[in-house]
What does this fold into?
Amino acid sequence: MRDSRLKETSPVHPSHDRLSALLDAAVDGMVVIDGAGRITSFNPAAERLFGYTAAEILGHNVKMLMPNPYHDEHDQYLQRYLSTAQPHVIGIGREVIARRRDGSMFPIELSVGEFKSGSEHGFVGIIRDITARKRQEDALRKNSEELRLILESTPTAIAITDIDGRLVRINPAFQRLLGYSIEALAGQSQEDLVRTLVAEDDRKSLLSDIHKLYHTGESFRRDVRFHSRDAQEIHAMIYAGAVCNTDSQPRLMVSQIIDRSALFAAEHEAEELRAQLAHVSRIGTLGEMVSGIAHEVNQPLTAIANYANAVKRFLQSGRADPMEVAGTLEKISAQAVRAGQVIHGLRKLTRRRETERVKLDCNALIQEVSRLIEFELRFSEHELLLELDPTLPKVFGDGVQFQQVVLNLIRNALEAMKDGAQGESVTVTTSVQVDGYVEIVVSDTGPGLTPEVEERLFEPFFTTKPRGMGVGLSICKSIVSAMDGNLSCRLASTGGAEFVIQLPIVSE
It folds into this structure.
């Protein structure tokens, strides 16, 4: 086999045996040609690559292994080198296309070396099939191009930073949102970037999240206010995740910045509309209570007039007892205070105002509501019982709107008991729950609710009252939700209904 490959006519030298053994053992294809370009050696690896046996190809011009244009120009290249000694391929590795016996083409990495030994002069070509590598490179190139197109065409602003916090890349959506090019932000540290782009109040928490991500790889999501280059404030949600290396260590941080300014504006508008609707609902509720309220205000005013006339008569008689006059004046003062409290409560509930979020004492607010509801209770057979936990912690919310919810629930309970009750009282209970909530329960002894009604109770415009509009409970639920709480209904142990308000306790 070796003799047929080398076509030796002279006695075999030991060095030729070693050369032949090396050629046979080589993993890469090896082809030896003479100065005329004829193949003088073709190792087994080359046979597997090209599909020719050594016997078939020895003595043929090496250009038969090449497609055009290399096939037609190879002899010219070889003669040029032999005449000028200026290498173009020799000594330099390069990627070219080779041709198999069946005519199929495949990419190879070709290294050509020149040798001279006595009268022998030729060239050795080392050939490596790089089909798999080129396929991988093409796939990587395709994936890279797809990722580039995705990054550039996505409507979401994206920024990529390295482990040192330096900006690596931003997409066009980032530039459109914040107005900065990558050149304008290049070279800034992580702290500098946050200082440039993020509102001051949000910087510390965001930097803490970023630091944690780089050390643990834990992704995060946070509402952040950004500042654009033209000084506009942008309310956004930032989602950030880590790209890790093979050791699962974070290498890059990819951040998506989702503009929520329109949503924030819509939420703000919805909050204003909800507050206006709540105000209208309060006015409507107080309008229904107007006769009782007028009676309650009229009583102290009548008493004040009577006491004032009595004092006048004492003074005109000339027999006035100073102590008796003073006692009557104190009664006038008490009645004036009583009337003032009623007016104050009405003004507080009817005033149109901005929604507030402050610490609330639920017990005190419920007691104020109970004084207003007393007017209606005087014309009914029912009573209001307060079972208030004196250790009740405070919650966050709007006090007037909280009172509106309690007032509505108490009046609904009294209304339900007109259709038949197993008892005479509506009870308001406050307590502390172990899961960090304050619970306010308004329970009645009425007929309760059917499953069908209970299921739709908080739907807007659903009502069981002949003249009801069906917005009261819906407004109440939205108010409680705005306070980060929940309003629900359940069957009371008395057979009536219980409405349960749960509000989170203020964290100190």
In short: The chain has four domains: 2-131, 154-259, 265-354, 357-508. Residues 357-508 form a domain with the Heat Shock Protein 90 fold (CATH 3.30.565.10). Confidence is low (pLDDT under 50) at residues 1-12.
